[in-house]
Amino acid sequence: MANAKIIQEKQQSVTEIATKLRESSSTVVADYRGLNVAQVTELRKQLRAAGIEFQVLKNSLVRRATASAELSQLDEVLSGPTAIAFSKEDAVAPAKILNDFAKKNDALKIKGGVVEGQVVGFEQIKALADLPSREGLLSMLLSVLQAPMRNFALAVKAVGEQKEQQA
Q: What is the rounded CA–CA span in Å between residue 113 and residue 127?
């Protein structure tokens, strides 16, 4: 009876992981080998603050979940100790946080992940991490939208000043 219970628990874990893979806007797989407890705690704190779930999972369970979620290409990066960051809301945040942390701590290695349902490698995760934040992109968009109005206002002011000087 104990084996049946263990099998049921593992099946439930696989189902949960597959659901997270499907529902996440971004999932990043990393090798955390070589990080000490304080470093892992700091990383978890940063990820939790951004609303990202970070778990150390057995590769065998994740492989079954990727098969269930039709993301079997991710199996290529599932070797050695594996930690996975799941983000439901912000597709850029886990890549950005893990990449920044990896720059300061050589022991953390980003392996790959899933972004918007597509399996991607390290290079794509790094490119995603280098994108400006959502707030940064919104401020860029706002400045682009404001530029024509600002230029128009300056032109009107210049015309008004020129007419004043002529009068």
A: 12
Q: Return the closest-CA partner of residue 46 out of 58, 35, 62, 34.
A: 35
| Residues 6+ positions from 158 with CB-CB distance below 8 Å | none
CB atoms under 10 Å from CB of 109, counted, come to 16
Contact indicator for 59, 17 with CB cutoff of 8 Å: no
Report the alpha-carbon distance of residue 160 to residue 149 in Å, rounded.
Answer: 16
Phi–psi pair at 165, nearest 5 degrees: -65, -35
Q: What residues contact 71, with CB distance under 8 A and at least 6 apart? A: 21, 114, 117, 119
Helix (H), strand (E) at residue 40: helix 37-49
Question: Helix-strand-coil percent breakdown of the chain, rounded to 5?
Answer: 60, 15, 20
pTM: 0.73
pLDDT of 99-153, one tens digit each? 999 888 888 898 988 888 888 888 888 888 887 766 777 787 777 777 787 777 7
87 beta partners: 26
Answer whether 94's CB lies under 8 Å from 27's CB: yes
Rounded CA-CA distance 166/14 in Å is 80
